[in-house]
Hints:
The protein is α/β, with parallel strands linked by helices and 483 residues long. The protein folds into three domains: 16-281, Spore Coat Polysaccharide Biosynthesis Protein SpsA, Chain A (Alpha-Beta Complex), CATH 3.90.550; 286-363, no CATH class; 373-477, Jelly Rolls (Sandwich). The protein contains eleven helices and 30 strands. It has a six-stranded antiparallel β-sheet with strand order 20-21-22-29-24-27, with no helix packed on it. A five-stranded mixed barrel has the order 6-9-7-8-12. Helix 3 (101-111) packs across helix 7 (225-236) and helix 6 (213-223) crosses helix 7 (225-236). InterPro entries: GMPP_N, Man1P_GuaTrfase/Man6P_Isoase, Man6P_isomerase-2_C, Mannose-6P_isomerase_type2, NTP_transferase_dom, Nucleotide-diphossugar_trans, RmlC-like_jellyroll, RmlC_Cupin_sf. Residues 371-478 form the Mannose-6-phosphate isomerase type II C-terminal domain. This is mannose-1-phosphate guanylyltransferase. Residues 18-292 form the Nucleotidyl transferase domain. Pfam families: MannoseP_isomer (PF01050), NTP_transferase (PF00483).
Amino acid sequence: MESVFGGVARKMTRKIYPVILCGGSGTRLWPLSRKSYPKQFSALMGEASLFQLTLKRLSGEGYADPVLLTNSDFRFIATQQLGEAGGNASKILIEPAARNTAPAILAAAVALADEPDALMLVAPSDHVIKDDAAFRLAVDAAAGAAEAGQLVTFGITPDRPETGYGYLELETAPDAGAQPLKRFVEKPDAEAAAEMLATGRFLWNAGIFMFKVSTILKAFEDHAPGLMAPVRASVAEGATDLCFFRLGETAYMGAEDISIDYAVMERAANLTVVPFNGGWNDLGSWETVWRETGPDADGVATTQGATAIDCKNTFLRTDSEGTRLVGIGLENIVAVAMQDAVLVADIRQSQRVKEAVAALKLENAGQAEDFPRFHRPWGWYETLSLGRRFQVKRIMVYPGGQLSLQSHVHRSEHWVVVEGTAKVTVGEEVKLLSENQSVYIPLGAVHRMENPGKVPMYLIEVQSGPYLGEDDIIRYEDVYARA
Length: 483
């Protein structure tokens, strides 16, 4: 993938740290987005993931390497996609548990406290912004106010009476630059949303903020002092793990679970808003994805592998290789087909997808939270077939990637290389396998698989035995510190 960190050169002397929040695990775009692999890491709008598009948007002259906030489950996914995008991170902070945006942002500010005049540009990693150049201009407008000690938020010019977003009220109709913010407004009902839209003085709250490190630290001290001690302690007690910094768990768990809006913004007086109308969407439902995909004159949008015949206001998407999705005579329908799950819904009720996830959890269905492709620091695997006493997997290993030195108590394995070269260790024997070559791993044998090449390596693994769970692994060595 070509580096996304080129961008348009801009003459800026200030230092802006993008603080990218990429630890969320929402369910609103199930089955594509699940707890084990949420939407920010998916390529929803093109070849790059939403996270990578965010990295590109918040890069270029004047921007420092980003500060990433994520959790332990996503740490290797984030670093892999960061590397694919050609970037580096200033810091990667690992939250021991989700505590909402206020503790996360405060942790980033504490970690940057030795640069009090640096600017923090806080952004979610799962939003779509169509006009990156216009957004950079908005950032430039916000930077001046932030340097002057303001807490700056970005407001989106609304085009409909949306009930799914919070709002920002201005004293007057918005203009092109930074201006005072009167107040935050909670998500309204339909009638209130229509009334606010009619006044011309309200913007959607995008959840994007900018402020100096010293300004936001002072704001937390003034408005949310109870967060200061646990978050500062979690940073002080944290530890470096490979390229990550793990926040101290005990202290961090003592921080209140609260958003930055509630903790600080709604209580502060030094508030500024920068309006933005360059095409923003938080992709909060399949209906919004349908709109962003660009439906035709009949309201039909499809992805590769999907075909619509005599349909209206319909979105068809397939993310399963080799699967064709065909809709005939559909109206107001969203259908999303994946390898292990299919969603069919009235597109106008697509925000109810979370109800489906809740129902699947009650049924103990793995599809509720587990993605069919399981990502690991060395690559990924997916199950092709599972039956009594056997399982067939497809495995991809990144160039230079290696699985842990391990053994199994309950299963033996056969590996067949189908693309690339594998370096295989079985007991004391080490050998290279090329395409169409195979190896047998006896029950209990200490073994390891590596990719010594410069291209991804793919193989088929056939497991057999009385128990095939992922917890049947004894690790002896692991370059990813999982042993």
